[in-house]
Structures are given as C-alpha cells and as structure tokens.
Amino acid sequence: MVAAVAACALPQTLLAQEGPLDNSQPKGITPQEIIQRFAAKEAEFKQARDQYTYRQDVTVKTPEDDGVYHEVFDVLFDNQGKRMENVVFAPQTTLEKIQMSPEDMQDIRHRLPFVLTSEEIPEYDILYVGQQQEDELHCYVFDIAPKKIVGKKRYFQGRIWVDDHDFQIVKTYGKTVPDIHKKSNENLFPKFTTWRQQIDGKYWFPVYTKADDTLHFGMGDVRIVEIVKYEDYKRFGSNVKITYDGKELPGGETPGQQPANKQGQPDQGQQSKPQPQQHPQ
Q1: Tens digits of per-residue pLDDT, 89-124?
Q2: How far is residue 41's CA from residue 34's CA, in Å, rounded to a whole number?
Q3: Domain boundaries in the chain?
Q4: Which of 10, 196, 198, 228 could disulfide-link to 209, CB 3.0 to 4.6 Å?
C-alpha cells in the first residue's frame, strides 16, 4: 500500500483450535525430506490450480476513516483456453490514507495464495521450527525467508504449516517483501494469514486471507484490514494433464469428485481445514 499524499471481523464459529508449538524433531522423516515432499506437492498443486476457474473477492479497509477498496473478479478461460480475468464488481474506491499500488495487485493475485514449488526452494532459507495441531490436522511448521531480493521480484517471508498426511501447505502467515522506501514513494505491505481447504479431494486450495496490521508510514501510522475470499472453484475441461503423486488423473476427472465447499462447511468424509484464526501480531 502506498500512503496517499495529503491535499470484517471473523465469526467466533470460524476460529481455529490451534495447539501449542512442539519443538521436537519429526519421527521417521527428516525436515529436509518434508521440504522436498511438500515442494513437489506444491508444484503439482500449482499446475492443478491453473486449470480451475474461481472467484476472488478482495476488500481493503482503513477503519480510521472508513475508506474501502472492493473488487470482485472471476478467473476464467476464453474460447481458446487462455486464462483471463473478468471484473464483475469494482465500485469507486473511497481509500484516502493509502493507494493500491501495482505491487499490491500482484501480491493479491500471486503472493497471498503463495505456492512454494521445487523450483523456488533454492531462493529461500527454510527452517524447521516444530509441530503443531491445527483443528484436526497435525502439521509440521517451517519459517521461510528469501535468501536475497532479486530485482523487482516479490517474495513471501513468514511461517507455513504443512499437514503430515498429504504433505501440503494448509496455512501461511507472514508478509510479502520487500517493502519499498524511497523519498517520493513508500510502499508498505501488511502481515496476513491465508487458510486452505481441501477442495477436490486431493489438493488444498486457498479459500480465505485476512490481514489486520498497522503500516508505519513516514507521514503517520495507518491501520489496514484486508480480506480476500477465493470461492466457486470449478475444474475447467481441457486436454491438460493433471497429476497427483506423479500419476496422471484418468480422463481429466477431478480427484475425489468432491464439489467446492463454502467456508466452514466441509463435506462428510472430507478432511476439515484449519479455520481462520487471528494470529498474534
């Protein structure tokens, strides 16, 4: 967010049950093996998610002056099968204390969902910090940070939770980096949490992101509340091969044949997701 030049709270029923952090080493597997397994799964997931349509609902608020930015867009495919966005709702912004920057737009589309693939692993320092229960999921916990900032590329820095069954990321907490500090341009970014849900019976998709943070601009502090919802995931029929555990899914079918659920309403027999919980700032 860029400071402007002067001229949703979550229902209690959606709060996650988070256990204490256990710093003990994993049993029967090394942290490096866990990293290799979840990175491979993230690469598969990235390919699979690129074959889904979905709706993304973005709201950014500055509560002190009731400023609001709101955009709803669908991620679709055109007649040639090329990925495209269709904006379905975008009223005039009333934000005055900040402005949405190109980096904000990039982060909303690519970094808040956060996919860490095998190709990106060498770019990050990854530290195993322990194990933790997230609702019914037992998770391995890692802190990650970029080894160095290259050019104008955006990175994620923070903490990830990897479930010990599917070896997939089910929750992330942190922020996008770097912040930008220039004499004529301060572009700062809030800490956020993204929760995932098992949508198709195999992969964990981002369904909800929340940020509630205070950004410290030179002209003064600004509190930011940001909510991003990812809804209506639907598999797009195409000839692209989707794999799971290295095996091609037969007939282009969605694994598990389970429909996407609304937030907080898992199907019977489906693994429940970690529910949104405000993370200590």
Answers
A1: 999 999 999 999 999 999 998 888 887 888 889 999
A2: 11
A3: 32-257
A4: 228
